[in-house]
Amino acid sequence: MSESRTDNRLDDVPMQPLRCQHCAARLLVRKSTVHQTSLQWNADAVEACAELGAAPMPGPALAGCSRLKESLEAEVAAGGLRIVQTV
Question: What's the count of helices (H) and strands (E) in the chain, helices before strands?
């Protein structure tokens, strides 16, 4: 039987809530680097997002909403979302 492992990267910089400026979906995010963002969608956020709702393939096959990028960038610029590694 395998043991589940804890992701200790979240201890120092946990995921934090973000609200999309376009559809008001609320999800959890974490910026590991400038180019890597972790998103955790819940059922309410998926339902609120028109782009996800219109996607032909629901679930993990869809990486996310293209309009969410603006909200992420604005939050980083405002200092509300920290990038863990800037190198």
Answer: 4, 3
